[in-house]
Amino acid sequence: MNIRKIGVVLLALLLAGMAMVPMVSAVEGTATDIREDEKAANDWQEKHKLKVTQTVISTYKDGVYETTTTYTGKGIKDRLGVDNFTTVKRIPLEIKEASTSLIFSRG
User: Fold this and answer.
1) pLDDT tier at 107 (50, 70, 90 boundaries)?
2) Where do the H-state alpha helices sit in 1-107?
3) Residue 93: what are its φ and ψ, rounded to 5°?
4) Count H helices, E strands: the chain?
5) How many CB atoms lie within 10 A of CB 93?
6) Where do the structural domains in the chain lie, given as residue ranges?
7) C-alpha 75 chain-centroid distance
8) Sign of the C-alpha dihedral computed for residues 76, 78, 81 and 82 taken in this order
9) Measuring CA to CA, which residue among 84, 53, 55, 77 is closest to residue 68?
10) 94 alpha-carbon distance from chain centroid
């Protein structure tokens, strides 16, 4: 008799779990709403794209590997009012590590 009660409880839990899965994984809105959101996001991306030229200069000096990336273009000047954007990344790197890293990165 005890085993039957346990079986009924487990069956009830299984059925409850099966009912919860669709509720948890359900998405609000219809497929049309989702497509419209994606279209709006794509439209926004297209309106805010800028054609730029990217220039990357990498150097190694005094134990520091430095990469300077500069973005230039007419779109940056017209839309944002600046001539360019520049980012600089500096990584301390010993010469032994640098030569090993370059060998492995070449493939």
Assistant:
1) very low
2) 2-25, 31-47, 74-75, 95-105
3) -150, 125
4) 4, 3
5) 15
6) 47-107
7) 24
8) positive
9) 55
10) 31
